[in-house]
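Review form for a predicted model. The reviewer records the input and the model, then writes brief findings.
Reviewer: anonymous (R2)
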Amino acid sequence: MPSPISINIKLDIAVQEFLKSAHPQNHGYDGFLFPKRSKHNQYLELLLSRAPEHWQEAHYGELNFRVVLPYCETINVLYNYYLSDRSQRVFADWVRALFYAEFHRFCDKHIRFGTKPKAATELFMETYNLTEDDKLFQKLTKDYYRYRKEYKKKL
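Model under review:
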């Protein structure tokens, strides 16, 4: 059961759309709710702390991603609901790394069956309801080619 506490996290729009598609949102709550016992919740639990005395929650415009905190086993989220700037960056980087890992896995799977990398990128964007953005498409395609180049070096 989620707590009544939610927090704002600064996340890229593509990563936000990916999370919403990968984990369907429960619309009865104020923000995005990660599945029970997910790694996301466990990692958030490690990063949460008590809010400073005169702290006010920031809003990040279109990069704002509202997350509903679950009740945790080790901390009380009614008091420990603060993510410092550094903790937010660490969490955002971790989620972004999961996004790219899933993207690479998805493309590898489709390319094994003969799909071209650009077509695999388009399929990924369509599967996870990512905005039809030429910059994002180019960024993901370029990232995949870099990933393949690094992977071949390791072999």
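Findings: The mean pLDDT is 89.
Further findings: The CA atoms of residues 61 and 121 lie 27 Å apart.
Recommendation: see findings above.
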